[in-house]
Amino acid sequence: MTVPGVHKRMLSDCFSAALHFPAVRALAVKGNLVYSNKSALLLDMNGTFMFGEDNFGIYEDFSKYYHKIGGRLSKEDANSVIRSAYSYLDKRYPDEKYRHSFPTVEDTIRNAVDKSLPEEEISKLVDTFAQHEIGNIPSEYIDVLHRLSKKYQLAVVIDIWAPKEQWLNLFEESDINKLFSASSFSSDHGMVKPSPKPFELVMKQLNISRERCLVIGDSIRRDLGGASAAGIDCILVGNATHINALGCYKNLLELSNDLY
Ligand SMILES: [Mg+2]
Fold it and tell me: Could you tell me the pTM of the whole model?
């Protein structure tokens, strides 16, 4: 069940809350030394430099955008398709069984939600799903990404459910699209964190050793868990703290001071 205002990845991480360990924040003080051997930052997106994402609460009217782009299903039908697709994917997202074969939004709508939908409506529904999944990138985070890119190679390891086009457009509009030397979007290949594979994919693109990399993310389970499985050091941002993290910071802005 979807809880309004509660982030899907937060729900997935709830069980890790008991592992939080505030004392590790002290390590952050020595940041510059700890990070001096790192040359590439592998960034998570949601909760790390994008915020306000995953707007699938019970009061969302998906049909507004869907009709704006020419969708022909009724308001009720369009809303029902998006809600069913979200619910189907939300159930599977934490399930290890789908870690390397997470379903696409299109396949979900086409095969699990309604097999009788007209073909031309499916792409509009997928587009609508993406519109509600995407968040925004605050200008101070855009600035910090530019600043970090002067010292480090930047890469993104991103879990999204819809196809990446809207995110690539936003990266371009925000003028950060050229900052990333490597990327992994889970909807391209179906591999979701905490699998180590998306991290390994990005390291291969960068042609870099794991020792030179630093994962930065806000999820204990997905970012720290995936980074640890791939043998890469991880820094947590946001409210998460964990003894296995190399450091824990309020946000990427605070961390950037120690990375410099
Ligand atoms: Mg995140």
Answer: 0.89
What integer is the mean pLDDT of 39-66? 98
CA dist., res. 210 & res. 226, Å (int): 13
Dihedral angle over CA of 68, 71, 73, 74, nearest 10 = 10
Taking the CA atoms of the chain, what radius of gyration do you get in angstroms? 19
Q: Quick one: pLDDT at residue 16?
A: 42
The CA 122 to ligand 1 mean position distance, Å, reads 28
d(CA 159, ligand 1 centre) in Å: 8
Query: Whole-angstrom Cα distance, residue 39 to residue 37?
Result: 7
Cα(194) to ligand 1 centroid in Å equals 11
Cα(65) to centroid of ligand 1, in Å?
Answer: 25
In the chain the first and final C-alpha atoms are separated, in Å, by 43
